[in-house]
Task: structure prediction
Amino acid sequence: MHGVRMDRSILAIGAAIAGNADADPGRYRSGRRRESGIGMHGMHARQTRLLIADDHPVMLAGIKSILQTVPGVVLVGAAQNSTGLFALLEREQVDMVLTDYAMPGGDFGDGMVMLERLRARFPDIKVIVFTVLSSPALLSKIMQLQVHGILSKSSGLDEIPSALQRVAAGMTYFSRALENGVAARNRGPCIDKITLLSKRELEVLRMFLGGMSVQAIAGHLRRSSKTVSNQKRMAMLKLACANDAELFLWHSQAGLTDVASAANCGE
Result:
């Protein structure tokens, strides 16, 4: 399992690493829409049902302990390999999985093989990967599977609550400990492409990268959600960012200061 936070000033991967920024990944695999309980208040707030997987019992114990500090999350099971993880996913109703990257010995493999099978078989379940590995090339491959977060084990367990809360809220999370290497790998042409964006596209990106949803941006700017979504999509095309994960990577190297100071932007 791997960790790093994407906050407003440094939105890094994660995620959503999700291909469609406007999609709501918070569903059961059965297709029933489910609200996350994190960040919600009142008697009717639903809890986020979490599965954890790691081949080290000590790590599992540590995660279970830290989960006691996270409101709105209920642990529905723990596994030590992909066999146990997939069995629990078939049996339980699950919103989110927090899994180690390397868990040898399971019937469904580990690493990329396991993650590919996990995303293909349970596409509506949010996935956060926890890992000791830090190879930028590997992290980029994990991101391409549209996982929702990557946590670095080198950061310990302290990032877990923030990661769970952000992912449950529909955002993505990427460990700061991993961010620099991935950003360096993607450094270069991306910053130069800022000048291709219109002022309205820049405005939408600033707000989106600041943590606002498309719907919230539309309300703030008094534009339709469709218009804002199209402006965001066009900006991503100009930046050669295929999904939110790549957009967060671009932002981690460019930063809001560079976005705000972009020159030669037409309407």
In short: DSSP finds eleven helices and six strands in the chain. Residues 244-260 form the longest helix (17 residues). The beta strands are 48-53, 73-79, 96-100, 126-131, 149-152, 173-174. The radius of gyration is 18 Å.
